[in-house]
Prior knowledge:
Layout: H1 4-16, H2 27-36, H3 43-59, H4 65-75, H5 92-112, H6 118-134, E1 141-142, E2 146-147, H7 150-162, H8 169-183, H9 194-206, H10 213-221, H11 232-253, H12 260-271
Antiparallel strand pairs: 1-2
Amino acid sequence: MLTETELKRQLQTSAANDYGVPEHADYWQLTQDMLAHIGSTDPELRDDLIYTTFVKWAGADRYTDDQYRALLNTALDGQHLFFHLGEPDTTAVFTRSFSALLGVLPIYHHRQQPFLTPDEVRGALDQVLDYFARESDLRGFVEDMGWAHAVAHTADLLDELAQCEEIDRTGLARILAAIHAKAATPETIYVAEEDERLAYAALSLLGRGRLTEEEVGAWIKSFAPIERVGAWRERHLNTKNFLRSLYFQAQYRRVAEWVRAPIDETLFTITCFK
């Protein structure tokens, strides 16, 4: 297994040569090394080199279906998506977050050229929703270590899963519930456009047309009222920003534009205190 320094050197060589595999290197072994260091606290290695190389190699059709399956299974395992989850480790979030982001690639590939079984897709959703509900490190950008962004990265993965035909109405409703819980959290105030990424995932889901306007309207209206107890200000601001993001994305993406009416009603309810 390569050290971080050795891996960084290999990936820099790859990047300098249009992301080709370095001479005398095996791309699948190099993939294993990237997986081992996906949570590096070196932002250049983690974000600019490891994740970017995954994206470039996926775009070049370097991986087979079996390899995509292996990537997905590894990304969602206990040493990646669930790595030190719930433990007081301030750096483990990078492994979890970038594993979630890596999961986007095999799910996207599956949507273009199906290779996963329905049970595998639904099982992946179960794991992601379990993780998302339990993730408590909601930081965006971390000084000296770069993007943590667990909420945004998981939203990207949920966006892909929500567009899979294997996810039925029940699964879609579960995704909306998960988005609701994180979008309206009182634990922090999002400052790194997490609301935009959550709204994007929600709108992609709504664009499938599998849920009725009544069901979605009820979901939107469930964001109100916000009781002024505890950390209500954080919840209040996060909720407003999420609903505003959803409102304008519906308008500009021209997807499920009818959601603007219940959003408008709900925003009025939570911003007009008596």
